[in-house]
């Protein structure tokens, strides 16, 4: 599960920068909308950053299912 931890660290760093919050405040259960006040534009920008960082493509259908940091990490770790 070291790979998931590595993905979490990268995701937390991206989110901290993106949402201007301390990296250590990002947890698996952090909700993108409720906790980080992410609107659809912020979420789209975050997805674009993650696609660049991880060299992947996230479909709109997948993006719509993801609501927490843990779900983001699990999705990326499964690729």
Q: Quick recap of the structure?
A:
With 79 residues, this protein is mainly alpha-helical.
Structural account:
The protein is mainly alpha-helical and 79 residues long. It has one domain (2-78): Orthogonal Bundle (Non-ribosomal Peptide Synthetase Peptidyl Carrier Protein, Chain A), CATH 1.10.1200.10. Helices cover 62% and strands 0% of the residues. It is globular, with a radius of gyration of 11 Å. The two termini are 14 Å apart. The model has no long low-confidence stretch (mean pLDDT 94).
Describe the global form.
globular
How is the main sheet built?
none
In terms of DSSP E residues, the strand content is under 5%
CATH topology group: Non-ribosomal Peptide Synthetase Peptidyl Carrier Protein, Chain A
Order of helices and strands: HHHH
User: How many separate domains?
Assistant: 1
CATH class: Mainly Alpha
Strand-pairing-aware structural class: mainly alpha
Helical coverage, percent range? 55-70%
Q: Quaternary state, please?
A: single chain
**Mean residue pLDDT:** 94
């Amino acid at each position: 599960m070291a790979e998931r931890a590595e993905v979490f660290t990268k995701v937390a760093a991206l989110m901290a920068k993106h949402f201007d919050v301390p990296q250590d405040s990002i947890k698996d259960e952090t909700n993108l909308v409720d906790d980080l006040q992410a609107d659809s534009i912020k979420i789209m920008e975050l997805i674009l950053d993650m696609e660049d960082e991880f060299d992947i493509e996230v479909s709109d259908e997948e993006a719509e299912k993801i609501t927490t940091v843990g779900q983001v990490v699990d999705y990326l770790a499964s690729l």
